[in-house]
Amino acid sequence: MNMREMLTGFSLALILGLTTGTALADQSDMPPPPVHGVSGICGDKTYLYVMAGGEILQYGITETELKLLISVEVPVPPPPLTPPPQEPNFDQNPPPPLPMCMPHGLWITDGFLYVLNGPMIHRYSTPDLRLLTTIDLPRPEFMEGGN
What is the mean pLDDT of each run of 10 residues along the chain (147 residues)? Predict the structure, then answer.
């Protein structure tokens, strides 16, 4: 089994395990969802990095196994800005759209792991996963009026 097949198998097993376990579990016994339940995966020739459940998990990769080496917590992003609640008037206004999923992802290059977690980018050193910097992304500016 080559490295690509092993990573593909691990990714599929992770996805299937998370979705199947959630679907089959008794809802009354389930713990509350994590505060920021985003996920992502990336790797290089030596390590596999998985973001899940508010943590980054670093696995060592060999030809025969994946071994968890380090796990660190990802800082919780601030809550999204929302306007104050208003009384719904569905005769004049349609219901608001469902909330969008926060952007997220992982990227590794030149000894650094970049983690996009909502409106923040975290830069970690690798392989020790030491948080070096956090950057807040600028908030989008919405255009006023309808001209």
Answer: 65 58 46 58 94 93 92 82 62 61 86 92 96 90 65
Question: Which of 18-33 are b and which e, b meaning 16 or more Cβ less than 10 Å from the residue's Cβ?
Answer: eeeeeeeeeeeeeeee
- DSSP assignment of 114-147: EEEETTEEEEEETTTTEEEEEEEPPPPPPPPS--
Interatomic CA distance for residues 81 and 78, integer angstroms: 9
Measured in degrees and rounded to the nearest 5, phi and psi for residue 66 equal: -115, 130
CB-neighbour burial class of residue 82 (10 A; exposed 0-12, middle 13-18, buried 19+): exposed
Report pLDDT for 107.
95
Q: Which of 106, 138, 104 is nearest to 123 (CA)?
A: 106
- The CA-atom distances, in angstroms, between 129 and each of 17, 45, 122 are 26, 16, 11
For 15, phi and psi rounded to 5 degrees? Answer: -65, -50
Reported pTM = 0.59
**Cβ(76)–Cβ(36) under 8 Å?**
yes
